[in-house]
Design goal:
The chain is about 45% helix and about 25% strand. The protein is an alpha+beta fold.
């Protein structure tokens, strides 16, 4: 078999369901959701591999001439292509997570055959069962908080004519001290926001902040695992906690619901 016709088994997620998740009667949430996404470009249609005991592996055939060897190495350098693949992968995972407990697999998880993919799930069965118990009936919400230092410091750092070199240095030091106080106070506010929302969630993760812009400082990048039945209360709590921060010039955002990516990554 040539590489042009050969394929590998690509994994999207592992699903807990009493029936084939591709064939079962959908819930109301699934019926109201958009049609099932197609998955990654160039791959076959999603398939459900039976791992037995109510566990299913959502997979697809990945052509090796597009997803292996030098071809995939070259494409991984194309951030636009990787981003499109990530969006397609996540869309399919989110589709299944609306219906059943779902454990997302990492982007570009490939096995040579269906059998090897199922063997991997079998070996990890105990961890997978623990994760299903952890995420069942729950969803992930994200909160980010940023500080625009330039805007916050503008009233303090407004230019003014200095009558002497000494006065200039004093003003420069005052601005530096004000910035340090501003950042310290802002980080304390971020801690308080995280603690308040963590109390309203079943679990929480504080992620390493992304690369900051020239004037923006990422204060908080967090994920919260919330029971679906409590999602409305969590949103209300988040909105109430975020509103005074927004009024004070912080940039705060709430996103979700998502599959519980950050609560399975360490174990899946």
């Amino acid at each position: 078999m040539s590489i042009a016709t050969a394929s590998a088994t690509y994994l999207y997620c592992v699903v807990q369901s009493a029936r084939d998740p591709l064939r079962g009667t959908p819930s109301r949430a699934s019926r109201e959701a958009p049609r099932r996404p197609r998955g990654l470009p160039g791959m076959g249609a999603p398939r459900a591999l039976d791992a037995h005991g109510g566990v299913w592996v959502i997979a697809a055939s990945a052509p090796l001439d597009r997803y292996a060897g030098e071809t995939i190495d070259a494409r991984l350098a194309d951030l636009d292509w990787v981003s499109r693949c990530a969006v397609a992968h996540e869309a399919l995972v989110e589709h299944f997570s609306r219906e059943s407990p779902t454990i997302p697999m990492k982007l570009f998880t490939l096995f040579t055959t269906d059998e090897r993919a199922l063997a991997h799930v079998t070996r990890a069965r105990r961890r997978i069962e623990r994760l299903f118990a952890k995420v069942a009936g729950r969803e992930e919400w994200g909160v980010r908080m940023l500080l625009d230092e330039r805007r916050a410091l503008a009233p303090i750092a407004a230019p003014a004519a200095a009558s002497s070199g000494t006065e200039f240095l004093l003003k420069k030091k005052a601005t530096k001290d004000a910035r340090q106080r501003l950042v310290a106070d802002a980080l304390a506010e971020a801690d308080r926001l995280f603690d308040a929302l963590a109390r309203a969630a079943d679990d929480s993760r504080r992620r390493t902040p992304a690369v900051e812009g020239p004037t923006s400082r990422m204060l908080l990048d967090a994920a919260f695992l919330v029971p679906r039945r409590a999602a409305r209360r969590f949103r209300q709590a988040a909105t109430a906690a975020m509103r005074p921060l927004t009024d004070r010039g912080f940039e705060v955002s709430l996103t979700g619901p998502w599959p519980p990516y950050h609560f399975v990554a360490e174990e899946a």
